[in-house]
Amino acid sequence: MKFISKYRRHKFALPTLLLLALAGLGFTFSAATAAPAKNTMTASAKTTLIEEGQQIFLKGCTSCHGLNAEGGAVAPSLIGVGAASVDFQVGTGRMPMQDMSQQAMRKTPVYNEEQVAALAAYVATLAPGPAALRNEDITWERDGNTAEGGELFRNNCAMCHNFAGQGGALTQGKYAPTLMGVEPKHIYEALITGPQSMPVFSDKIITPQEKLSMIKWIKSAESEPNLGGAALGRVGPVTEGLVAWVLGLGLLVGCCVWLTAKAR
User: Fold this and answer.
1) What span, in angstroms and rounded, lies between the C-alpha atoms of 115 and 86?
2) What's the number of domains the chain is made of?
3) Are 206 and 141 in contact (CB under 8 A)?
4) 11 in a structural domain
5) For the segment 52-97, what is each residue's pLDDT rounded down to a tens digit?
6) How buried is 56 (Cβ within 10 angstroms: 0-12 exposed, 13-18 middle, 19+ buried)?
7) With the C-alpha atoms ordered 109, 115, 116, 119, is the resulting torsion angle positive or negative?
């Protein structure tokens, strides 16, 4: 303080303080105006994306889901489903579909990734809902645990999707699809949105880390070798029993025919 007081009346003190004040003011103004410019650009890009998604929705979705996504006689309301549901349904090719009375099947998507993102962004503006994900956001390889994921899958999913994730039949002509070849983000989105007959697994039921473990187990099941021989689709004892009966009985009948012909 004495050092400052010593030069307080110096002839360069006032100009120096004025320059420091101007420099500080200019720096503060630059920092304050730079952030809004970035946000404005981001908001503008987001607005453009939403408008594009709205146009896609008006052309390809309103005939079933209504002009305001309120739903109708053949399709449910999309208000509150979130971007994750759109990314899953449209990104896997399940939507749009011609016959809403049938279960939606995974097929080649009608829209590309940019169009799916735009459509998801528009639906997300209708009401709060689960956000869409990217494969880069899901760190299942690093944070997942294969053993834990297998146990969680057997306890929560195997009764529908089969113990090996190959899918299976449900009641009333419905079925649980195979999980082989499904992108990690779509598995995660299905868990948090519960498409069609699937229940919703919130973070209170299955935590995000446990979801990553389930994805890791599913991915390990895709590449698991069939050390025991032919896998027969890994659909369980029905197929195995059928093969045993057909081959076993066929072999026995063949032996009986051969022995009868030999006895003559």
Assistant:
1) 11
2) 2
3) no
4) no
5) 999 999 999 999 999 999 998 889 999 999 999 999 999 999 999 8
6) middle
7) negative
CA angle, 68 then 72 then 76, to 5°? 85
Where does a domain end: 104, 132, 160? 132
For the stretch 155-174, pLDDT in tens is 999 999 988 899 988 988 89
- Identity of the amino acid at 36: P
Which residue type sits at 6? K
In a domain, 203, yes or no: yes
The number of CA neighbours under 13 Å toward the Cβ of 44 is: 6
Distance of alpha carbon 235 from alpha carbon 108, whole angstroms: 24
Cα–Cα distances in angstroms (integers) from residue 134 to residues 46, 54, 116, 138, 208, in the given order: 17, 21, 12, 7, 15
Distance from C-alpha of 185 to C-alpha of 3, rounded to nearest angstrom: 63
List, in order, residues 6 or more apart from 155 with CB less than 8 Å away: none
Written as one letter, the residue type at 172 is Q
Alpha carbons 145 and 137: distance in angstroms, whole number: 17
Give the total residue count for the chain: 264
Distance of CA 161 to the CA centre of its chain: 17
Sign of CA dihedral 114, 90, 84, 213: negative
Kindly report the CATH number assigned to the domain that includes residue 117: 1.10.760.10
Residue 81, domain extent: 34-132
Q: Which residues partner with 169 through β-bridges?
A: 175
Q: Among 75, 110, 132, which residue terminates a domain?
A: 132
The residue type at 141: E
The helix (H) or strand (E) run that includes residue 150 is helix 146-156
